Amino acid sequence: MVLSDVNFSLAEGEILGLIGPNGAGKTTLFNIISGMLKPDRGKVLFGGRNITGKAPHKISRMGIARTFQIPQPFPEMTVLENVRAASMFSHGGGKGRLPKDPAEICGLLGLGGKKMHEPARRLTGGEKKRLEVARALGTSPGLLLLDEFAAGLTVAETKWASEMIRKLSKEFGLTLVWTEHVMRVLMRTVERVVVLHHGSVIAEGAPEAVVKDQGVLEAYFGGSSA
Amino acid sequence: MILPELVVLGVAYGLLFGVLALGLTLVWGVMKVVNIAHGDFVTVGAYSSYWLFTLAGVHPILSLLFTIPFGFGLGLLVYLGLVRRVANAPELMSLFLTFGLSTLISSLLLNLYSPNQRGVPISFPSINGLGVVLPGSVAIAAAYSVVVAVLLRLFLRRTFWGKAIRAVTEDREAALLMGINPEAVSLLSFGIGVAIATSVGSIVILLQAVTPTVGGDFTLLSFVIVVLGGLGSPLGALIGGVVIGVVNNVASLYLNAAVTPAIGFIVLVVVLIVRPSGIAGLKPD
Amino acid sequence: MGTEGESYKRTRRLDAAILAFVVSKARRALGRAAAAGIVIILIAVAVGGYYYYQTLPTAPTGPSTIKVGMTMPLSGSLEADGVMSLDGLKLWAHNVNASGGIYVSSLGRKVPVQLIYYDDTSATSVVSTDYQQLVAQGVNFLVAPYSSGLTLAAAPIAEANHLLLLSHGGASDSIWTKGYKYVVGVLSPGSKYMLPVIDMLKNLNSSAPLKVAFFYGNDAFSISVVNGASAYVNSTSGFNIVYKQSYDESATSYTAQLSQIAALNPDVLLGGAHFVDGETIMKNIQSLGLHFKMVALLVAPDDPHFLSDLGSLAGYVVAPSQWESSLDFSSFTSYFGNITSSQFFTQFNSTYKMPPNYEAAEAYNTGLVLQRGIIDSGSLNSTVVRNQLSSENFYTFYGKFQLGPTGIQAGHTMVVMQWQSGAKKVVWPKPVATSALVYPSP
Amino acid sequence: MKPNPQRLAPLALPVAAAVLLYVAPNYAAGTSLPFIILNWIVLAESFNMFAGLTGYVNFGHVVFYGVGGYIGGLLMANSMASPYAAVLAGGLGSALLALGMSLPTTRLRGAYFAIATLSINEAVFVIFDNWDAVGSAPGFTIPIADYLPLQVYYVMAIVAALCVATMYFMTRSKFGVAMQAIRQQEKTASSIGVNAAFYKTVALVISGFFAGLAGALAIWQIAFIDPTNAFDVRVTLNSISMVMLGGLGTVVGPIIGGTLLYGVGDYLDRRYPFLHLIVLGVVIIGVVMAMPQGIVGASRRFFQARRIRREESEGDGSNSRDLAHL
């Protein structure tokens, strides 16, 4: 995937929606921010520091957490162990308002009680998605990158997810970047949207404005650019 | 003119071991099984041809008509009885199982046929051309390898099952969605893999004598070639075989013969460091 | 993003949490480990108990058998040699026991022989373990495993426990340079293997110096053979070494090296190592269309399979040999043993359905040497028998036995054989030759 | 009081110590059998430290054993150090080698790692096979004065205990969590701050250290070393088999696997010197078919299933899902 001319910034505590059709480069962008890919050119700044090309584990320790589009938990560990592992290695650069106790984080994501002691491989698809977030929160991040969090969730789960994300931002002061292929839920939740297409930013602004943008519509529904 | 001769020899031997590695890479690509017993199937093929020659006077090349279907059937049995259980299990598991299988095969051969070396007293006139002498038996080995490689390529490209094998190698889950039964593909490719090994055995008996434990050397060689060429890449296996063959032969011009076997391994380590997925690893054939 | 102090405190708290976690985990795991520990201990006690009962003294009065302990490489890279050697020794034990055993004068009766043998899988670590166990089982004498390397792993145990170790398949001279007193060689050492071949070539009285190429296996035995041979060649005139390199014995072909050697146009190719490599060299020589006036290889041509595997390719290949079935020493004075070479050949062939090679003869002869030592000293004590052997000087079907000061075999001499029209012929030394050398080979 | 094997826990260590220190050397046919079993346990456990914990197959494990043996052996043969120091030097030398080996290889994944390490094994073998300064192919011996089986045995016992203890702490610490994470999902591990390359390197270095000690001790005992035996790929394969038989990634797995595989193999060799390898092959295949998790894994499952059944019958039906899975 090629990214070019992607330029945007984030304010603390903000929820930024990152949208674009399949193959627009959303996951690639996340991989670059989280250090899993090295960009040929360009810079990633975090809290004023240049973090471009740093190793993933270092970036995690600086307070950037991420989830994976296809959940990739530690399958043989229980839910609680997954989150506890995360809290062991990253001491987080976050504000510190997030709960520190792994069990509490599990509860927050609706994975408390008996669920907590179940091996991750036995979770349902939706539960695995929530575990992705719980594990990311375990690292006490300041910035959370959510990759296609709502994809594949039921209607009820989607609604819950949207509330969850708002809560993370408002209650715990977390900064979030959320990508989604399906826009509807995202648009209801976020404050600002960046639209990626063919590896470039084609629009940026409030959700209401962006939906009306001609270029965005073309990117999604085909048109002159296709 | 030693150098061109060594290069030709290297290519010829390399083709044979490339084809042997082809059988290994097929199995590896489809079911991620590391088959330590691969070389022992070569020994089984060599012994079959030896006995056919000694007892019934069947020429080893003619005995291919037996060793190929025999190897295929043996492969099916071994897959259904044993390997099926470890297909797609962690590598260590298949490694452990096939190590047990290798131990079993070589010790059975040892007890059945004694540890003595076995060879067939057949020789071929050598081929002279452009100042290069190529031993007849080596030329036959190279020709056989080319035939197998071409047939296998046609099979993989043109037939339904061949395409199915490629599909499973590239993406098992996608193949499943396309309606391909990966179990059947695994069965088929293991059968083909073993058939290639046993048939190479029939050729090997023309080149050298064998003992029950000689299989380990063939396994090692095929491993190196497979990785050098890139896992799951048939073309890569052939290229890897030729590279190893030529490097080993040419290196013997400049280095003590006892050192040359290390050259292949050193080349492999260097290649892996520079290009962690092998020579042809990036473009699966 | 949190001050330094905060993050430090958080780290401390986290560490405490981890510690608590580790301790709680450890407690539970200790319980589990303990359960497993008990299982292991039970196994260990069972194994210990088994060996304890194994080592309990069996009979209170005098030994009922002479226990001869050994390992042999019955699997692994040396299995062919190991099986051949073991068969030779088994035949000896069978023949001795058929006559009631060996007469031990200190006991005043014949005592049968009991061979105790294990498979060492061609690995020194197994040799070391098994010989210590043989010692613990109370063997009277030890026979070395086949090959120099394995013999060197058995030697310190024999030495430390003052048990005679008879070497029948360890030819490397280095075995007798370590100061071991209990290691006795029955066969000619490696450095002497090729000497009769060179003597034979010298006897040809060729006008121009003979060009010699050495191409040999990279192992202790072959190296000591070639070092001995090349030193001898250098010390005499009439030879010119044009090539000297070792090779890896697991190689599948030697065509590259042989082409190079042929380009140097030598008269004689000397070398080889073991079975498979020797045959491969012959096949490669033929398929490359090369011709040497003489090819002399170690070990491989001596094996009867050499002919059946190679057919006409075996023609006129020369090999140094420890023993051939045509050799007859029965007229030599102080001849020991109720068997001649041809009798041994016939009996071995009918017992094991394959003709013996010299490894089998060496092993049988090892039994005879032990037998002679016991009879002449009248003792089953290894030290006594070892001292007896230093003063012995006799012939068996295998040839002469006389020890050098270090225990190395000094009496036995090698012969040279050549495949002629599908039959093995002894061609040197002249007094025992059954045919004249064909040189240059057609 | 119900009979509970866990109550006997405090007894386990002293009993094990007594077996190692007194019973084995006195009754088990000299020290050689217990010595070699302990040697194999260390080889298998050190293999397990890396492969069992990270999931990467180090096919060149025997390189550590051989190089440790060569370093220790050379120091002993030339009387340059006391055997104890020589053994330690062997371990440290192999640890250093492991560090060097980790630089190019820890970048490689799965089978590529396995074959790269196998190639290193072959290359190292050829180097030692042709290196005259270390005796080349014929190898060298250690003077008889250093032949002290009982001492070697006790040092071996201490090393084995240290090795098992190290593995225990490696699995029951933050280190163990990191290793689990790397094995189960390496990408996720790095996303939560686990420095995978660092942990893999440390594990390989510790693994190399203990395998090197085992090699040096083996050479002290055997008093002879040559490249064929020092770099025999069968040593790696046996270590793998022992670990798989006992239980991959577990602390006690290699102890059980090593004891059973060598102990049973030795017994079979005694009884059937020509057939023991056939039996070994059958046993390995049987283990994979019947207990793919190894003995420790199988017994764990057995006890787990029993516990759940007991809880069920006591009226606690909440675990029915687990039962369905088992």
Main sheet record of chain A: 6 strands, mixed
Order of helices and strands of chain A: EHEEHEHHHEHEHEEHH
Number of strands of chain A: 8
What is the gyration radius of chain A calculated from CA atoms?
Answer: 17 Å
Key structural traits:
heterotetramer; B: 285 residues; mainly alpha; two-stranded antiparallel sheet; 2 strands; globular; D: 326 residues; 15 helices; 76% helix
List the helices and strands and how they pair.
The complex is a heterotetramer of chains A (226), B (285), C (442) and D (326).
Chain A: E1 15-19, H1 26-33, E2 45-46, E3 49-50, H2 56-61, E4 64-66, H3 79-89, H4 102-108, H5 125-138, E5 143-147, H6 155-172, E6 175-180, H7 184-189, E7 192-197, E8 200-205, H8 207-211, H9 214-221
Parallel strand pairs in A: 1-6, 1-7, 4-5, 5-6
Antiparallel strand pairs in A: 2-3, 7-8
Helix pairs in contact in A: 3-4, 3-5, 4-5
Chain B: H1 2-31, H2 38-56, H3 64-81, H4 91-113, E1 127-129, E2 132-134, H5 136-158, H6 160-170, H7 172-177, H8 182-207, H9 215-229, H10 234-254, H11 260-274
Helix pairs in contact in B: 1-5, 1-6, 1-8, 1-9, 1-10, 2-3, 2-4, 2-8, 2-9, 3-8, 5-6, 5-8, 6-8, 9-10, 9-11, 10-11
Chain C: H1 4-55, E1 66-72, H2 79-98, E2 102-104, E3 109-111, E4 113-119, H3 124-136, E5 141-143, H4 148-160, E6 165-167, E7 183-185, H5 195-202, E8 210-217, H6 220-235, E9 239-247, H7 255-263, E10 268-272, H8 275-287, E11 294-297, H9 305-310, E12 318-321, H10 341-352, H11 358-377, H12 382-390, E13 394-396, E14 399-401, E15 415-420, E16 423-428
Parallel strand pairs in C: 1-4, 1-5, 5-6, 6-7, 8-9, 8-10, 10-11
Antiparallel strand pairs in C: 2-3, 12-15, 13-14, 15-16
Give an overview in words:
The complex is a heterotetramer of chains A (226), B (285), C (442) and D (326). Chain A is of the alpha/beta class and 226 residues long. Chain A has helices spanning 26-33, 56-61, 79-89, 102-108, 125-138, 155-172, 184-189, 207-211, 214-221; strands at 15-19, 45-46, 49-50, 64-66, 143-147, 175-180, 192-197, 200-205. Chain B contains 11 helices and 2 strands. In chain B, helix 2 crosses helix 8, helix 2 crosses helix 9 (215-229) and helix 10 (234-254) packs across helix 11 (260-274). With 442 residues, chain C is an alpha/beta fold. In chain C, helix 2 (79-98) crosses helix 11 (358-377), helix 3 (124-136) packs parallel to helix 4 and helix 11 (358-377) packs across helix 12 (382-390). The longest helix of chain C has 52 residues, at 4-55. The relative contact order of chain C is 0.11. Residues 1-5 of chain C have low confidence and may be disordered. The interface between C and D is large, with 71 and 67 residues.
